[in-house]
TrEMBL record, chain B:
Stretches assigned to the ABC transmembrane type-1 domain: 95-308
PROSITE patterns cross-referenced by the UniProt entry: ABC_TM1 (PS50928)
Keyword list, A-Z: Cell membrane, Membrane, Sugar transport, Transmembrane, Transmembrane helix, Transport
Organism lineage: Bacteria, Bacillati, Actinomycetota, Actinomycetes, Kitasatosporales
Membrane spanning stretches: 35-54, 94-120, 132-152, 181-203, 235-255, 287-309
Subcellular location: Cell membrane
Gene source species: Streptomyces calvus
InterPro entries linked to this entry: MetI-like, MetI-like_sf
Record's protein name: ABC transporter permease
Family: Belongs to the binding-protein-dependent transport system permease family.
Annotated stretches, region: Disordered: 1-23
Broad class of the protein's primary localization: membrane
């Protein structure tokens, strides 16, 4: 079961499964449900003992299922992590156990409209100060300098993390000066008029629409938008790493993506077969095919190296992935509560409240267990 | 009572020598038939309403987490869920938003619906066509309306602001992006959605009112307002109760529209009991807390259902 409800993804997955199935002599059926329903559907299936043999979870949801005791340790099924970078092994692990094999990973980057930047004669910003200045300079008429998502869902939190982390902030301490500083930077962009006031109501897909329509000169977004972006031939975009607070600082983005897991079904034989299928789907060859199709970065080191030579224009993304961080590494299943508190906080701050007060409240809410 | 049934049942199975109608037997047959007709409904209600309801109440006293789905164990934790939900500031906010949302939506839907019903109650060309067109918002799925309205109300590129701007009015209204405006905008959209329902039912009620009464009132020289107040409103009262109670029940549990429009944001400004229970259960996966909020919703609805039944009973007398 996966969330490949888009026709293209569904087809790519079906092809990959057919290849792996042929190699292993098994038939693999694909069932796709909307991303937001994978967890609840899997839980329902668990209680009715009808779990599928493989579930693809969003990596931020995997710990919840793992904590409930629903997943099999992939290493016991014979999966090797030799060629997988440590960060990505952690990404698929919960409390030190490797439960999820990532086929590809993604993160956020700064997408910019090359024509607009060239016309204005500005360089691609690399620091917050430059980003603020450039965004202001590029804001003209109906066009905003920058678009990002601060919507009230995981999208907005995903987009806030690179600012929070690059500034030294941390999800365990939401009212620290570093997190406040990151939120103040967002507020400053909004006050400058460089961000649309609708930012608080946008998903990442909305941000992409705005960028494509020419309503924004730059945007923060991820590689999964590339396929849509490329449908507009007149748009010349490029990507860069997300600007950092000060020159020389590390740009730390969030690791995103899905992991293939083997749920505990109690049937050892089936679990073993499922492990072999996961190994094939997450193998070097299939990873490369999948990554090239979906514009995401392969998790496997060898595949990633090959991928870089094939899509040099996304090189910046591969760099960003190498330094990226998993959202659930520190909090595990506690991430969802912190995420909700954080959404509420940055929305309050962007609509008038002080960042400090909003984040203090968020910290209280996150620690009260509500 | 039980004994009589049992004896009657034995006598029913042994073929009687005489064909004369046995009063006990006919009574039994009637009773069985009566229960036979009611039984499917009772089974249905118990299975699909009673069971979930009881489970939901139980769940609100349990520590029900993703683990429960595997182990089947959900330890009872007394009133922990209830106290944690009631202490959450968000719950108070959501309750208030729900009340404002429901009252505002009902008021708007009902007034406009009634005005339109009275308007269409007169005869004029294209009456039928216009009346059918007004039904359209009702036919569009809620999520679709939500998404379309989200685009219309966009602050920068939305049709509404662009239109207001060309009229020389304030074309920069933060419909869905300001925490002060968002709830109002959501109410306005919901009013738009609810008008057809109100209009159709009220229109039906108006058609029932005998024309003679209006003729008599006209002969007596009553003004239009007087006619409306002394004839239309009192005779329409049963229908009005139905419309308001049904409207209340569908409005108080609103979820889909808000998820599509604002997702409860910005900054929880449109968080209602419906979205809160959704968030607790399906985002945070804290099913116990979600059940508490769900139960509060049920209690609120139940209180109004009692009012509704009361009102109906007095009408019946």
């Amino acid at each position: 079961m996966n969330s490949s409800t888009d026709e293209t993804y569904h087809r790519w997955d079906a092809e990959a499964m057919a290849r792996c199935g042929k190699q292993l002599g098994v038939t693999i059926e694909q069932q796709s449900v909307p991303a937001a329903q994978v967890m609840t559907k899997a839980l329902r299936m668990a209680s009715s003992k009808s779990l599928p043999d493989i579930v693809q979870f969003d990596a931020s949801e995997m710990p919840t299922f793992a904590e409930a005791g629903g997943l099999v340790d992939l290493r016991t099924l014979g999966l090797s992590t030799d060629d997988v970078p440590e960060g990505i092994v952690d990404f698929g692990s919960y409390k030190g156990t490797y439960y999820g094999a990532a086929r590809s990973v993604n993160t956020l980057a700064l997408f910019y409209n090359k024509d607009i930047l060239d016309e204005a004669g500005v360089r691609v910003p690399t620091t917050w100060e430059e980003l603020r200045r450039t965004a202001k300079q590029l804001t003209q008429g109906k066009r905003y300098g920058l678009a990002l998502s601060a919507g009230g869902a995981e999208d907005g939190v995903f987009q806030f993390t690179p600012f929070m982390w690059s500034n030294g902030g941390d999800e365990t301490d939401l009212d620290s000066p570093q997190v406040v500083g990151a939120l103040d930077f967002w507020k400053a962009l909004l006050q400058d008029g460089s961000l649309s006031k609708s930012t608080v109501n946008w998903t990442q897909a909305d941000v992409n629409d705005q960028f494509m329509a020419g309503n924004a000169a730059m945007m923060i977004n991820g590689p999964w938008q590339v396929e849509t972006l490329n449908t507009k031939k007149s748009l010349h975009w490029e990507i860069a790493r997300i600007p950092v607070p000060e020159a020389g600082a590390d740009s730390v983005g969030p690791l995103g993506g899905a992991v293939l897991t083997v749920p505990r079904t109690g049937d050892a034989e089936r679990e073993k077969t499922a492990g072999r299928i996961v190994a094939c789907l997450a193998g070097e060859k299939e990873q490369l095919t999948y990554a090239l199709n979906s514009w995401m970065v392969p998790a496997n080191e060898k595949a990633a190296a090959e991928w870089r030579t094939q899509v040099p224009e996304l090189d910046a993304l591969a760099d960003q992935v190498a330094a990226a961080r998993s959202r659930t590494a520190k909090l595990g299943a506690g991430w969802s509560g912190v995420s909700l508190a954080l959404q509420s906080a940055f929305q309050s701050a962007l609509t008038g409240q002080s960042s400090e007060a909003a984040l203090q409240r968020a910290q209280r809410r996150a620690t009260s267990g509500n | 009572m039980t004994t009589s049934t049992v004896t009657a049942a034995t006598s029913a199975t042994t073929p009687g020598p005489s064909a004369a109608p046995d009063p006990a037997r006919t009574r039994l047959r009637r009773r069985v038939a009566r229960w036979g007709f009611v039984a499917p409904a009772v089974v249905f209600m118990l299975l699909f309403f009673g069971y979930p309801l009881v489970r939901n109440v139980l769940m609100s006293f349990q520590h029900y987490t993703p683990k429960t789905f595997f182990t089947g164990e959900a330890p009872f934790n007394g009133t922990d869920n209830w106290s944690s939900v009631f202490q959450d500031v968000l719950f108070g906010k959501a309750l208030w938003h729900t009340l404002v949302f429901t009252a505002g939506s009902l008021l708007g839907q009902f007034c406009i619906g009634l005005a339109l019903a009275v308007f269409f109650n007169r005869r004029f060309p294209l009456n039928g066509v216009l009346r059918s067109l007004i039904l359209l918002p009702w036919l569009v799925p809620m999520v679709v309306s939500g998404i379309v309205w989200r685009r219309i109300l966009d602050q920068d590129t939305g049709v509404l602001n662009t239109f207001l701007g060309t009229l020389g009015l304030d074309g920069d209204t933060p419909w869905l992006t300001s925490p002060d405006m968002a709830l109002l905008s959501v109410i306005l959209v919901n009013i738009w959605i609810g008008i057809p329902f109100n209009m159709v039912i009220l229109y039906g009620g108006l058609q029932e009112i005998p024309k003679e009464l209006y003729e008599a009132a006209a002969l007596d020289g009553a003004s239009a307002w007087r006619t409306f107040r002394s004839i239309t409103l009192p005779l329409l009262k049963p229908v009005i109760t139905v419309v308001l109670v049904l409207g209340f029940m569908s409005t108080v549990k609103i979820l889909d529209l808000i998820l599509a429009l604002t997702d409860g944001g910005p900054a929880d400004a449109t968080q209602t009991l419906g979205t809160l229970t959704y968030q607790n259960s399906f985002v945070e996966l804290d099913f116990g807390a979600g059940a508490v909020v769900g139960n509060v919703l049920i209690i609120v609805s139940a209180v109004f259902a009692v009012f509704y039944l009361r009102a109906n009973r007095t009408e019946g007398k």
